[in-house]
Amino acid sequence: MPRRTPFHEYHRDAGARLIDFGGWEMPVQYQGILAEHTACREAIGCFDVSHMGEVRFRGPQAQAAVNHLVTNDVSKIALDQAMYTAMCNERGGIVDDLIVYKIGEEDLLICVNAANREKDYAWMKANNPFGAEITNESDQWAQLAIQGRHAIELGEGLLGRSLADVKNYWFTRGSFAGVEGCIVARTGYTGEDGFEVFLPAGAADIIWTAIHERGARFGLADIGLGARDTLRLEMKYCLYGNDISDDTTPLEAGLAWVTKLDKGDFIGREPLLAQKAAGVPRRLVGLEVQDRIARQHSAVLYEGQVVGEVTSGTRSPTLQKNVAIAYVPAGLSKVGTRFEVDIRGKSASAEVVKTPFYTRNY
Amino acid sequence: MAYPSDRKYSTDHEWVRVSGNVATVGISHHAQDALGEIVHVELPAVGKTFKKGDSAAEVESVKAVSDVYAPVGGTVTEVNGALDGSEGTVNSDPHEAGWLFKLALTNAAEVEALLDSVAYGEHAGNDF
């Protein structure tokens, strides 16, 4: 029996095409991936991301416990600030990528990927030398992402106060659409302006209805996992399981900016220091591919030799170009480097380009 | 709506309409619907010869790529160049303007072995 979010009936009633995603029955598309992608880029999109997990760290050692687990330095964030980070295993491979929300001095909420909920919680519990109180709150929370140029205006109407004043990667807590106990964060996975709201799972109906009633005037569209993937790919945002995994390090994945090797000890620090000292062997780059669409696992060739692999690829609906993310040798990762990509036995030329592929114009 | 009865269908969801010795090939409504919005079509070179069951073309949606198998053997005489830049035609009109390629038949008897529209409708689900 697949797991379902509290919004399942809305997806079904909207005629969404439902698929299994990591054990969850989720909408992959409603009206169509291209139309949904465009709606998010040009107006506003609503994504059910309730399948993502939430783990809470509490107690005097909460911050130390999280800092021991993750690569970024959570001592640097203030109350009501969020931080993107990787969480590594003892080999420096990525267990998951996460966002940490500082709810209180002794209270941190961590949002984890749906497919990694149980893995992450077990890993956190098993690596808790500081004795923080760790609770899996995943079933208590529902989550919607509201993304697009009109998202902030929509959110402010339901929040009853300014959301524009909440800076990128900060959040505000309180009443949203009349529901107490919500967290409204200026975060997202699309490259558009917007917010994500964590809400008590029991209030799902109230908030869904309020967002859709108010969203109609802005052309709000429901967005499935299909367009969520094309939107994030245009930004070269990593997708766990595609671009990052237990066998890739944050230094390889372009996540050095969230890897603070000088912050003190954390799991994976030693191998990451060693990798940095020896030279990071491969890097995740953005490719523009001619004529054909590269897909995950397509081989990347340089002068006839296989040197890398595509981890994600699609036709970019916004740019009308074929884009891909791939691991290539660090020495061949400069913008302008040309490769061939083997796409089901046929060769297509590709070039490293600047990323993100897409930049919003407002 | 029922599948057009002027042609035959493969269990892999291609259709074949024969005129003289030339078979026009496309994918069925069911196939395009399952794939989603098509953004790229890879067509064979004119003159290329396929055996029945060979991969002859590819249709790609945003999410996935799918082989189009030659439902009958033959040599490519023409491809649908109008799809270049208008790949969505395969979604909007899969049975007519969204055709993919034409084959000069190697063995006309192969056509007879394919499904008729009623049998294909039962195979793919008749409602659309």
Features:
heterodimer, A: 362 residues, alpha+beta, Gyrase A, domain 2, Alpha-Beta Plaits, Elongation Factor Tu (Ef-tu), domain 3, 3 domains, 6-stranded mixed β-sheet, 8 helices, B: 128 residues, OB fold (Dihydrolipoamide Acetyltransferase, E2P), 6-stranded antiparallel β-sheet, 3-stranded antiparallel β-sheet, 4 helices
Task: Tell me what you see in this structure.
The complex is a heterodimer of chains A (362) and B (128). Chain A has helices at residues 8-13, 33-42, 62-69, 117-126, 151-159, 204-215, 225-234, 269-278; strands spanning 17-21, 24-29, 44-48, 53-58, 82-88, 94-104, 107-112, 133-136, 141-147, 171-176, 179-185, 194-200, 220-223, 282-289, 299-302, 305-316, 321-329, 338-343, 346-353. Chain A is of the alpha+beta class and 362 residues long. Chain A has 3 domains: 8-49 and 139-234, Probable tRNA modification gtpase trme, domain 1 (Gyrase A, domain 2, 2-Layer Sandwich); 53-136, 2-Layer Sandwich (Alpha-Beta Plaits); 281-362, Elongation Factor Tu (Ef-tu), domain 3. A 6-stranded mixed beta sheet of chain A has the order 10-11-12-9-3-13. In chain A, helix 2 (33-42) crosses helix 7 (225-234) and helix 5 packs across helix 6. Chain A is globular. By secondary structure, chain B is of the alpha+beta class. Chain B has one domain (8-106): RNA polymerase II/Efflux pump adaptor protein, barrel-sandwich hybrid domain (OB fold (Dihydrolipoamide Acetyltransferase, E2P), Beta Barrel). Helix content of chain B is 18%, strand content 34%. Chain B contains 4 helices and 9 strands. Chain B has helices at residues 29-35, 89-92, 109-112, 117-124, and strands spanning 8-9, 14-19, 22-27, 38-42, 49-50, 55-61, 65-69, 74-79, 101-105. Chain B has a 6-stranded antiparallel beta sheet. A 3-stranded antiparallel beta sheet of chain B has the order 4-6-7. The termini of chain B are close together.
